[in-house]
Design brief:
Blueprint (H helix, E strand, L loop, with lengths): L4 E4 L4 H12 L5 E4 L7 H6 L7 E4 L2 E4 L1 H11 L9 H26 L3 H21 L14 H19 L9 H12 L1 H4 L6 H8 L7 H5 L5
Parallel strand pairs: 1-2
Antiparallel strand pairs: 1-3, 3-4
Helix pairs in contact: 1-3, 1-6, 4-5, 4-6
The structure holds glutathione (GSH).
The site of glutathione (GSH) has 13 residues, from α1 and α3.
Length: 224
């Protein structure tokens, strides 16, 4: 059978989750980029919601990043989810939570004014208090050094937050020491560093330059 193929948009945090899992498990794969602003017909015919990521496995096309990650987890060692059903259910809930947080981050980035940004920021700050409480205080979310699908679920959020924070310091994690340590540990991890294209930082700043927050990116355009 041919290698699994991931259909991607270079800046998509949901695609990035799948790449982290593939890299962590050292699964060979191919990646096919599309322009989401001008999606090709073959993609629209395959993607029920017109969204990336898709993962083609033989003739089967999977969609939804959390589902793709679980499929990869069930088919390639090492296991990145807890064995206990209750702990696994909790892990899934946090992954869903992280998806919601990624939506907030996106809305922060495209907000046209400060009020719109602040509203999402305040909600994210409030919600992150739950994550701080639930975090096992190991390097990774469930404790210990082993990356789980929860870590892969949140890593794209923290990576983008770091780019935002460098452009304009944000107090989002100031009250959350475990989250700050976690974000740093994730940023250091090879699978996470190699989960985005090389020109990701520039592409990200360019993509969101037009929002209220994006004016801060102009000053850091030369930074990497
Ligand atoms: N729930 C989906 C969300 C995926 C998603 O929102 N992808 C965005 C790009 S980051 C997309 O393809 N958007 C295109 C659109 O909404 O038309 C998942 O987890 O895979």
């Amino acid at each position: 059978m041919s290698l699994p193929e991931l259909v991607s948009f270079p800046l998509c945090p949901f695609v990035q989750r799948a790449v982290i899992v593939l890299r962590e498990k050292q699964v060979p794969f191919t990646i096919r980029y599309i322009d989401l602003d001008n999606p090709p017909d073959w993609f629209l015919a395959l993607s029920p919601l017109g969204k990336v990521p898709l993962l083609s496995v033989g003739d089967t096309v999977l969609f939804e990043s959390a589902v793709i990650a679980e499929y990869l987890d069930e088919t390639h060692p090492p296991a990145l989810m807890p064995a206990d059903p209750l702990a696994r259910a909790q892990a899934r809930a946090w992954i869903e939570f992280a998806s919601n947080l990624l939506g907030r981050q996106y809305r922060m980035l495209v907000a046209k004014d400060q009020a719109g940004f602040d509203e999402e920021f305040a909600a994210a700050h409030r919600e992150l208090a739950f994550v701080e409480r639930a975090h096992a205080d190991g390097p990774m979310f469930l404790g210990g050094d082993t990356l789980s699908l929860v870590d892969a679920g949140f890593a794209p959020f923290f990576m983008r937050f770091e780019l935002m924070n460098r452009a304009r310091p944000l107090a989002l994690l100031d009250d959350y020491p475990k989250l700050r340590r976690w974000a740093a540990a994730l940023a250091d991890r090879d699978s996470v560093r190699r989960s985005v294209p090389e020109d990701f930082n520039d592409g990200f700043r360019r993509r969101f330059a037009g929002g209220w927050f994006g004016t801060a990116f102009a000053d850091t355009a030369a930074m990497h």
